[in-house]
Design a protein that fits this description.
300 residues, alpha/beta, Spore Coat Polysaccharide Biosynthesis Protein SpsA, Chain A, eleven-stranded mixed sheet, 7 helices, 13 strands
Length: 300
């Protein structure tokens, strides 16, 4: 059975200044998500799960999902602040959901086979989806702990408009050994700098293996992540800004020898709209790819 694609689309894009998931960027008003879904279908994914917020679910279904109904199976699930395991009460001072880990868990009741996870507002490239699909198709539904990640070169994931956050990875024999979230990463005068989880500013290698939240998981990830979410909440339920990230879950499972994560290489360069200033460049790139015949116009 072909794999599932889960797209995390619940973030409101605070730095971008709006609901960038619905921003028309292609020649015929296509969104970045449209290109991801197109590439996923082309690469052999069978269905798509969108994780959204209840506040814009109706608009999302009307503007986005309607385009895909006759192309691929589509599911919508929601991520909300109060989507918590039994026994936990939401801190009233909290304003945002609990991060990408919670976003993936929003689909735990419907994921039954190997699946991929991506961000809604990142363009990953067709080859990235092809590599990911090939790996997931090599697994069966009973496989456990056999995860993968598409690794990008850090220099191919930066924004010209400001700093970004990225998961910087360490590997051994093509397997992930550690992923650490770095913030305020920026390139100045050819030098890339960023802050690790310890808050210390560090020099970073241009070709450092980087996670852009393009993952492949076996279904057991859901149970593993849910158990870790419970442990996370025991310590952080009253913290108004702490987030439960997918890279954190992955690191914990690697360290506990519960899972392995094979790092798959891609020749593609990432791009996205982290900032409003990025928009014009992204529009031009999609226009060029359309002119070059890489994508049809309109896409669907």
């Amino acid at each position: 059975m072909k794999p599932t694609l889960l797209i995390m689309a619940a973030g409101m894009g605070s730095r971008y200044g709006g609901l960038k998931q619905l921003d028309p960027l292609g020649p015929k008003g296509e969104t970045i998500m449209d290109y991801s879904v197109y590439d996923a279908i082309y690469s052999g994914f069978e269905d798509v799960i969108f994780v959204v917020r209840e506040s814009f679910k109706k608009e999302f279904e009307e503007k986005v999902v309607s385009k895909y109904r006759d192309k691929v199976k589509v599911h919508l699930v929601t991520q909300e602040l109060n989507d918590l395991p039994n026994g936990f009460t939401l801190n009233p001072n909290r304003e945002k959901p609990w991060g990408t880990g919670q976003a993936v868990l929003a689909a735990k009741e419907i994921v039954k086979r190997p699946f991929a996870v991506i961000n809604a507002d990142d363009y990953y490239g067709r080859e990235s989806f092809t590599v990911l699909s090939k790996y997931l198709n090599s697994l069966d539904n009973n496989s456990k702990g056999k995860y993968c990640m598409i690794g990008f070169e850090l220099d191919k994931t930066l924004s010209e408009s400001g700093s970004v956050s990225r998961g910087i990875c360490k590997t051994a024999n093509c397997y992930l050994t550690q992923v650490e979230e770095h913030t305020n990463i920026i390139k100045e005068n050819g030098i890339i700098k960023g802050e690790g989880m310890d808050g210390v500013l560090k020099l970073l290698d241009a070709d450092a293996c980087t996670s852009m939240n393009m993952w492949g998981f076996t279904p057991d990830f859901m149970e593993n992540a849910n158990n870790l979410f419970i442990e996370f909440l025991k310590e952080n339920i009253n913290e108004p800004k702490k987030e439960f990230y997918v890279p954190f879950v992955v690191s914990q499972l690697i360290n506990s020898n519960i899972a392995t994560v094979e790092v798959l290489n891609t020749p593609d360069a990432w791009f996205g709209v982290t900032y409003k200033e990025d928009r014009e460049r992204v529009v031009e790139k999609f226009k060029q790819m359309s002119n070059d015949g890489i994508y049809p116009t309109p896409l669907f």
